[in-house]
Give the backbone structure.
Amino acid sequence: MEILNISTSKREELIDITGRVKAVIKDVSEGIVFLYVPHTTAALTCNENADPSVKSDIIKKMSSLVPEKDNYKHMEGNSDAHVKTSLFGGGEFFIISGGGLMLGEWQGIYFAEFDGPRKRKVYCSIIKS
Amino acid sequence: MEILNISTSKREELIDITGRVKAVIKDVSEGIVFLYVPHTTAALTCNENADPSVKSDIIKKMSSLVPEKDNYKHMEGNSDAHVKTSLFGGGEFFIISGGGLMLGEWQGIYFAEFDGPRKRKVYCSIIKS
Amino acid sequence: MEILNISTSKREELIDITGRVKAVIKDVSEGIVFLYVPHTTAALTCNENADPSVKSDIIKKMSSLVPEKDNYKHMEGNSDAHVKTSLFGGGEFFIISGGGLMLGEWQGIYFAEFDGPRKRKVYCSIIKS
């Protein structure tokens, strides 16, 4: 298992980790790479890698659906981040074939920070097929 | 890796691909099948295969939560589809055991189109156990 | 494939199954465990295992986003549970390394009941690496 260390710089942001995942799988021909976030206020998502306004639209829409303040009982002030984490999910797999990551043309892999800035980790595990 | 080609006919719809996934795994006894959507405005979901009103309720509720028009910055008019894709997720796995797909009695596997009609693909990869 | 049997006691609740998943993987050194819910009104999620108010905040927020009554067409009165199931997802994987489950310090694995009380199942399948 390999670990990616990620430093986030805002409370909420999507950080492109596509290149780092490609580096992790570089010696694998066929298989699946499993990415896993061992945190409860951050997640993973795969979405558009071209127009950066897609990222800001996603962050903004999620904040309007699940606002930071909303009569939550949890006292740490980050219940919204916990809800968003359950909605996005912290585990994503990607197919490796022909020695490459089988992403779509417009896809990037994003670390979704919902309660930063923090030091974060992503676990990467590969099963060859 | 096998590819399913899917033609969608509406802007938003859930298309049952259960039979096509069963065809992909037909010679496998034990393992996991990984389904992956290489698009940023379409996803996968597993839900009820009996009453079709469940599908229309899901589509309608998602459209009320994430409306097509909502002061988005992205100019292509499909930011709602990007958000829904991150919420549903484009990767789903299913367990193969005893030579069959281990779905629940009421479960169907659906391709979730959020910005159609389009020509779409689903990648299918199997790891035997 | 192993099956966990779960009895839920409320309409909506998050039930910690972390210990049961650890028991399933106890003889495995390296690999991935795949958990799968064969139901259409229940899901899985991974979130905080410390303050129980995080669980109640998640349940409450999901009920305000997707209310039980909301002009749904499906006559069984549980369309909200179907939508929540698609949002959370019924399949989650976890990495096994060094003979243990690679969870974060604050993570627990939860069965998410959205239309209980019911008798439920979680399928568990392991692929060693």
